[in-house]
Amino acid sequence: MLDILITSKTRVKLLIKFFTHEANRGYLRGLAEEFNESTNSVRVELNRLSEAGILVSEHEGNTKSYAANRKHPLFHEMKSLVAKYLGLDRLVEVVINKLGNVEKAIVVGDYAKGIDSGVIELVLVGKAINKEYLEFLIEKAEAKINRKVKVAIYEEEPTEMNGMLLLSI
């Protein structure tokens, strides 16, 4: 859906990077390497998104760092649009809400970092979660969102997780 509305693949990657997790930041060369794109194509899109006010930048020494502009009037809509594109909204709807005993759902790994790798890693925190029913729901969700879903279940929230994105349930 997002790639139909926005024809620039680099721009789609940037939107995913910055709007999946508010804390995601990036700089030109790092983003170009991450996306396997030329620095010129990434620079053009960073400039366009910055000029539109969707991204903000700040200088950190000799490096210019970019992030989503949380004060932009469309910030929450952009986050929602990216979540829908990635299928996170359907994942919450199909898997998490129907289990009933889930206290928290946390996206970790590539998607928490804003990288559309095709595998969504999810940590569920809750007690007495029906694992067989969860497997059935994951299969259903994978078919709907066209992505692989890996789930880890904990009774209490793990103390350390790198790059996590809390989903509202």
Please outline the major beta sheet: 4 strands, mixed
Distance between the termini: 24 Å
Poorly predicted runs are none
Number of strands: 7
Helix content: 40-55%
Number of helices: 7
- Helix-strand topology string: HHEHHEEHHEEHEE
- Class derived from helix and strand content: alpha+beta
- Enumerate the strands of the largest sheet in spatial order, edge to edge or round the barrel: 6-5-4-7
- The name CATH uses for the topology of the largest domain is Beta Polymerase, domain 2
Beta-strand content estimate: 15-25%
Shape: elongated
CATH class of the largest domain: Alpha Beta
Brief overview:
By secondary structure, the protein is of the alpha+beta class. It is 43% helix and 24% strand. The protein has a 4-stranded mixed sheet with strand order 6-5-4-7, with helices on one face.
Provide the fold topology.
Layout: H1 2-5, H2 9-19, E1 25-27, H3 28-35, H4 39-51, E2 55-60, E3 63-68, H5 75-86, H6 88-96, E4 102-108, E5 119-126, H7 131-145, E6 148-154, E7 165-167
Parallel strand pairs: 5-6
Antiparallel strand pairs: 1-3, 2-3, 4-5, 4-7
Helix pairs in contact: 3-4, 6-7
Report on the structure:
This protein is α+β, with helices and mostly antiparallel strands. The protein has two domains: 2-75, Winged helix-like DNA-binding domain superfamily/Winged helix DNA-binding domain (Arc Repressor Mutant, subunit A); 87-167, Beta Polymerase, domain 2. The chain has seven helices and seven strands; from the N terminus they run ααβααββααββαββ. The strands form two sheets. Strands 6-5-4-7 form a four-stranded mixed sheet, with helices on one face. Strands 1-3-2 form a three-stranded antiparallel sheet. Strand 5, helix 7 and strand 6 (148-154) form a beta-alpha-beta unit. The longest helix has 15 residues, at 131-145. It is elongated and about 50 Å long. It starts with a helix and ends with a strand.
